[in-house]
Amino acid sequence: MLLFGRKRLLPALSGCVVLLLVNPIHGASDNSADPNQRDNAMQPLELTPRLSLQLKLHAFLLWSSVGFLMPIGVLLIRVSSNVRSPKTAKALFYCHVASQMAGVILATAGAALSVKNFENAFDNAHQRVGLLLYGLLWLQPLIGFLRPDSRGLKVRSVWYFGHWFLGITLCVVGVANVYTGLHAYKERTGRSVKLCTALLTVEVSGMALVYLVQDRWDHVVRQRRRRQEEEEEAGGDERSSSEGAAYPANDHKEVAVVVP
């Protein structure tokens, strides 16, 4: 029963993403909506010092969660799978758990700040995707804690794929939502976000490069190590053959002559 539920989890989540992106919430795209409300939503936002601080804090909390800690956790668990030392692998695993839980806590703080201080009409993609993101952020650690103990079973394989796919989806959707948040900030305030966008792009590109190159680099290291071992074996065979040629074995039997 649990296996079928996990298999149906990802299609259900994908359907929720599509519904949230296509269908607006609270009738925001209804033709009968008040035109004055739509005009007010498009008016520039008057930034007070307090509101400016709250927006910056919200952006920092969400970036540090889905834009930094969650991807770092993915990289840590990926590195641990290629580590030979059990102690190092265990330390990386606990660092992965700590980074993910810290990301969930920071995202929850950002969500509470948004609900308390901002207008949440959910009439744009940033707010709708953010709402879905908060739910998935709490679902991901729950799936992690429900990891089956037995290795090699089909349930463990299904769990691994679901946990991995949801983690990658969270990182991709979270980073995309940070971009849309920066765009919404620019549209509402008229302030430039080029520097923040450039820094985010550099960071995400670097993490993506490390993620993609890591497995290939491990493969290169294994091939180099195997080549060195083969060269050492070939060198040992050559030395043994040369020693055999320098000191040939005396296979002739010695004949003892006995004088009567």
UniProtKB/TrEMBL annotation:
- Give the record's GO CC terms: membrane
| Residue ranges constituting the Cytochrome b561 domain according to the UniProt record | 10-221
Predominant cellular place of this UniProt entry's protein: membrane
Q: Which residues cross the membrane?
A: 60-79, 91-113, 125-146, 158-180, 192-213
Q: Which UniProt keywords apply?
A: Electron transport, Heme, Iron, Membrane, Metal-binding, Signal, Transmembrane, Transmembrane helix, Transport
Cofactor(s) listed in the protein's UniProt record:
heme b
**Residues in the signal sequence:** 1-27
- Top-level taxon: Eukaryota
Q: Where is this region: Disordered?
A: 225-260
* Basic and acidic residues bias (residue ranges): 250-260
Q: Which GO terms fall under molecular function for this chain's record?
A: metal ion binding; oxidoreductase activity; transmembrane monodehydroascorbate reductase activity
Q: Where in the cell is it found?
A: Membrane
Query: How does the UniProt record describe the way this protein sits in the membrane?
Result: Multi-pass membrane protein
Under what name is this protein listed?
Cytochrome b561 domain-containing protein
